[in-house]
């Protein structure tokens, strides 16, 4: 893929390093000349420009990108970049960083955002996931809240111990996508037996999360 990243700070550079290592073409757009350091990500294309200016994005060839990531430390900038990418350049996938969780409600398709990533919220969810056993924890939201990645760790007294996955009566609009067990990643099959301590990851809409809890006997 060809990916444009607005913002070459610590977050933007980290993302670009991961993407180039995975074989993608990356263009970093940065308006602060002091942050232009091509040696930091040598295989990326560096562009000194203001990603909020339409002419700059046209010159950079944003229309050729498959993904745009608005990764600056300013939520207002990220929203403007997302809106321009989607409405002016018809970029198929727009990802935006949310710096202040209070602004998260703005990061939706009205502003051209396909995926909003809130670092504070994600960190809070990971903390909850690390300490919560038996509770359903929302880890990530997809497609403007249409579906979530949620996790449940089965407690020692789970009524599901020893029972096969096919006995798990999940509601519509939900799916068990993976079981994490002792460092193993298990793609669940109908005959796989569940065990206490299993971490179950589901993709589900928000309105069926309570039904998932009920299916797990919580």
Keywords:
11 strands, six-stranded parallel β-sheet, 218 residues, elongated, alpha/beta
Structure, explained:
This protein is α/β, with parallel strands linked by helices and 218 residues long. The longest helix has 13 residues, at 75-87. It contains 5 helices and 11 strands.
A few lines on this structure:
The chain has about 220 residues and is α/β, with parallel strands linked by helices. It contains five helices and eleven strands, in the order βαββαβαββαβββββα.
Structural class: alpha/beta
What's the Cα radius of gyration?
20 Å
The overall strand count is 11
Distance between the termini: 42 Å
User: Treating each run of at least 4 consecutive H or I residues as one helix, how many helices?
Assistant: 5
Q: What is the topology, as strand order, of the major beta sheet?
A: 3-2-1-4-5-6
What spatial form do the alpha-carbon principal axes imply?
elongated
**Helicity range:** 10-25%
Q: Characterize the largest beta sheet: strand count, sense, and whether it forms a barrel.
A: 6 strands, parallel
- Strand content range: 25-35%
H/E topology pattern:
EHEEHEHEEHEEEEEH
Detail the poorly predicted runs. none
Calculate the mean pLDDT score and round it: 87
Question: How would you summarize the topology of this molecule?
Answer:
Elements: E1 2-6, H1 10-21, E2 25-30, E3 45-48, H2 54-60, E4 67-70, H3 75-87, E5 93-98, E6 115-118, H4 119-131, E7 136-142, E8 147-153, E9 174-181, E10 184-186, E11 199-204, H5 209-215
């Amino acid at each position: 893929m060809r990916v444009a990243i607005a913002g070459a700070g610590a977050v933007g550079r980290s993302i670009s390093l991961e993407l180039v290592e995975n074989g993608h073409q990356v263009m970093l757009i940065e308006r602060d000349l002091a942050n232009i350091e091509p040696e930091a990500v040598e295989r990326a294309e560096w562009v000194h420009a203001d990603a909020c200016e339409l002419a700059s994005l046209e010159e950079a060839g944003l229309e050729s990108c498959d993904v745009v990531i608005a990764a600056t430390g300013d939520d207002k900038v990220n929203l403007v970049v997302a809106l321009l990418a989607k409405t002016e350049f018809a970029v198929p996938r727009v990802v935006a960083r949310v710096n202040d969780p209070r602004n998260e409600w703005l990061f939706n398709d009205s502003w051209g955002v396909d995926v909003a990533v809130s670092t504070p919220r994600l960190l809070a969810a990971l903390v909850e996931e690390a300490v919560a056993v038996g509770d359903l924890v929302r880890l990530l939201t997809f497609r403007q809240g249409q579906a979530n990645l949620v996790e449940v760790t089965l407690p020692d007294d789970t009524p599901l111990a020893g029972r096969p996955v096919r006995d798990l009566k999940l509601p519509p609009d939900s799916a068990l996508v993976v079981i994490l067990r002792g460092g193993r990643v298990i793609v669940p099959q109908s005959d796989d037996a569940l065990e206490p301590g299993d971490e179950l990851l589901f993709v589900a809409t928000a309105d069926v999360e309570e039904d998932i809890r009920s299916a797990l006997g919580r």
